[in-house]
Amino acid sequence: MEAVLWYVFVGTRGGENRARLLRALDDQPRNPNQLADDLNLDYTTVRHHLDVLVENDVLRNSGDEHGAIYLPTDRARTNWEMVEEIIEQVE
Q: Domains along the chain?
């Protein structure tokens, strides 16, 4: 998990926005439209970063594509202290 977190938050472009998304979803599960509005980001940017985080088992979703609600995976929650340490590097 540690290597994945370093990759998605520090090793690739967009880590800062991914950290913002993860922090927002830790506070409250939301769909992509809500995230775009709340974080003042473009919808397609939000969708891209959500896809990256889902592909790397940091987030999971439920529901249909446009209305799907996203939240951290159990794996991310289990390693939350490490998640916090790594995303602090990009904030």
A: 1-89 (1.10.10.10)
- For the full predicted model, state whether its pTM sits above 0.85: yes
Q: CA–CA separation, 72 vs 5, rounded Å?
A: 13
Q: Which residue, among 47, 57, 49, has the nearest Cα to 4 in the 3D structure?
A: 57
Q: Determine which helix (DSSP H) or strand (DSSP E) holds 78, and give its type and residue range.
A: helix 74-78
Backbone angles phi, psi at 30, to 5 degrees: -150, 165
DSSP H or E run through 61: strand 59-62
62, β-bridge pairs: 69
Those residues whose C-beta lies under 8 Å from the C-beta of residue 31, and which sit 6 or more positions away, are 63, 66, 67, 68, 69, 70
Residues 2-40: pLDDT tens digits?
899 999 999 888 999 999 999 999 999 999 999 999 999
